[in-house]
Every structure is written in C-alpha cells, then in structure tokens.
Design a protein that fits this description.
Elements: E1 6-9, E2 32-38, E3 69-72, E4 78-82, E5 91-92, E6 102-105, E7 108-111, E8 115-123, E9 128-135
Antiparallel strand pairs: 1-3, 2-8, 3-4, 4-5, 6-7, 8-9
Length: about 140
C-alpha cells in the first residue's frame, strides 16, 4: 500500500484467459481474478491450460469495457473506478475465493478428480502467481 493515491490505467492485458471472481471471466470491476486448472502448469505453459468452471452460471454484463482506470487510495485496499463523477470510499480490491472440490462440467456439477491442480491468480496488467494443490 502506498502513502499517496496511485492512478493506474486499465490495460486489459490478462496473462491468462478465464481469470475470474465469478462465472463471467474478466468482467468484474476488480482488475484481478483466479482460475483452477487440472494439471501442473508453469508460467511458461499456463496459456495451454483450460480453466475449470468453478463458479455457478449466471448472466454476464459487459460494463467492464467502460472502465478506463483505477485510483488506488492511500494506505488502503480500496480503489475508485474510472470514469467516475466524484471520489468515493472506493471499491474493495480484495476477494476471497473458495473452491469446494466441485466444478461445473457442461450442465452438471462434478467432483475434482484426484491429481495435481494449478491455481493461478492474476491481474489485468499481466502479473500472474501460481500455486499447486493435490487432490487425493
């Protein structure tokens, strides 16, 4: 967290397709998301992965295309979303995502198969972080 506000332009340079905080990939106002991929992937081959559908289906609005940037507030985990008419208390730039061992396979829910999974988190500026879990 910075001591002063930090204005950052929206880049829409997602390092991985399918990063999300809900059913609709890359459309929420937060400029970050997560994905779960079956198998072991690294930063060099993560683009070959197909993210599992870990969120319940829903309607996908397209208002993300209107966002031009973010003003991260000083000493805060909040940011104002641009364009905006007046500064506000900001939008929370934090999220908790729980994967409960179930994903949507077409029209039905399925348990995660035993094996290694790559969990990738990233932002719209192309930064990625990967961790690995094993389902037994």
């Amino acid at each position: 967290m910075l001591a002063s506000s930090n204005t950052v332009s929206a880049e829409k340079n997602w390092g991985v397709n399918g990063l999300a905080l809900g059913f609709c990939a890359n459309i929420y106002v937060q400029p970050f998301g997560v994905a779960v991929c079956q198998g072991y992937y690294t930063a060099h081959n993560i683009l070959q992965a197909t993210p599992l559908k870990i969120f319940m289906p829903g309607v996908c609005p397209n208002y993300i295309i209107l966002i031009t940037g973010y003003v991260f507030l000083p000493h805060s985990i909040y940011a104002d979303i641009l364009p905006g008419s007046t500064p506000t208390a900001g939008t929370l730039m934090s999220a908790n995502v729980t994967v409960d061992g179930i994903y949507t396979n077409g029209t039905q829910s399925s348990p995660l198969n035993p094996g290694v999974y790559t969990i990738v988190a990233g932002d719209e500026w192309g930064t990625l972080g990967l961790i690995y879990v094993t389902v037994e």
